[in-house]
Amino acid sequence: MKTRRNDPCFCGSGKKYKKCCMGRAEGNPLQDVKDEVHDLLEGRTFGSMEELQSLLDQHNQQKNSASVEEFHGLSPDQMHRFLHMPFESPELVTFPRILPTQPQSKAAFLLNMLVAEIGEEGIKLTAKGNLGQKFCQKASKAYFDFFPEPLMSRLSVHTETNFESLHTIRLTAQLAGLTRKYKGRLLLTKKCLKSFERGGVMELYPLLMQAYIQKFNWAYRDGYGEVYFIQQSFLFTLYLLHKYGKSWRPASFYSDNFLRAFPMLLREIEPKLYEPPEDTLRKVYFLRALQRFAGFFGLVDIEQVSEDPRNREYRVRATGLLDEVVEWNL
Fold first, then answer.
1. Helices 251-261 & 277-285, crossing angle to 10 degrees?
2. Residue 302 in contact with residue 231, Cβ under 8 Å?
3. So what's the pLDDT on residue 55?
4. In a domain, 68, yes or no
5. pLDDT tens across 105-154, in order?
6. Over the stretch 90-114, which tens digit does the pLDDT of each residue have?
7. Which of 216, 233, 263 is the last residue of a domain?
8. Within this chain, do residues 235 and 291 fall inside the same structural domain, yes or no?
9. CA distances from 34 to 29, 54, 171, 273, 322 (A)
10. Does residue 188 share a domain with residue 137?
11. Which of 5, 89, 117, 172 shows the smallest number of beta carbons within 10 Å?
12. CA–CA distance, 290 with 300 (Å, rounded to integer)
């Protein structure tokens, strides 16, 4: 039997069908907005268009400032600022210019090595503009001794692009204005030298992380499609980790809540014969937002909890560094 507009939704949310899955089922994402306006105006009369517009404005203001369950207490107005003005919303969140302690992470380790290697003289680059093989091999050995990865540590590093993490740091440091190329050499910029003199890596790190968020293309590090929204919504990911990350939780907890907050993102996932879009999106989210952003920058610890190579499962917990790089004012 067909579900009617005012029947309880079949998904079990407890909401009326018209206020839940009807718009999605009919392929019209604006359907619930139309129904909401219809319910608001039903039975009312207005003396002028100005009176009607005033009611609609008041309704929209109330709706946009009310917390949303799927946003875990954030209002639509707050989510808008999270997505479009994350670094210009001090009433919600601030990003300290200098960290109070030395950051401990994979990104910080490689940044330290790169800055030390460049030094005052700079280092010679290859014809393709990459770091030389000798330094890449030295950095690779030191990195995998400190952060063991059995499979990766056995691979031979011949070029910078063979060592993906170092390649990412080198590119991001340049995007952050910390390094520059000049006559076939890689040099530290005046900005980098002054910041390093004042606060060392504690001052360079926020610059590096902001460049990774705003300028580096996260899709460059994997073979999936663009799905830029995962990068754009980085602050919502950090908000979830701040809110729930004090204890270990399955990585699926965060990917499921991300999908629940932004279900329309599934339309950007290219369908595959062997995998539903939901599973693809969860994989991309874990890889980019949790592993190669929050994990790489030391904002979370990630542990593998299953041995099945076809269906690896992980758990995630926030580190103390998370609350040092982001200060919440909510």
1. 120
2. no
3. 64
4. no
5. 999 999 999 999 999 999 999 999 999 999 999 999 999 999 988 666 56
6. 999 999 999 999 999 999 999 999 9
7. 216
8. yes
9. 10, 18, 46, 35, 41
10. yes
11. 5
12. 8
Nearest to 166 by CA among 238, 92, 115, 236: 115
Q: Is residue 22 part of a domain?
A: no
Instruction: Report the distance separating Cα 271 and Cα 275, nearest Å.
Output: 8
- What is the pLDDT confidence band of residue 225, given thresholds at 50, 70 and 90? confident
Is 298 a domain residue? yes
Q: Tell me, what's the pLDDT at 149?
A: 81
pLDDT band at 1 (very low <50, low <70, confident <90, very high): very low
Residues 6+ apart with CB under 8 A from 192: 115, 173, 177, 178, 179, 204
Q: CB–CB of 317/252 below 8 Å?
A: no
How does DSSP classify residue 140? H
Q: Are 103 and 321 in contact (CB under 8 A)?
A: yes
Residues 245, 199 share a domain: no
Task: Count how many domains the chain has.
Answer: 2
Cβ neighbours of residue 205 under 8 Å, at least 6 residues apart? 99, 103, 107, 108, 111, 325
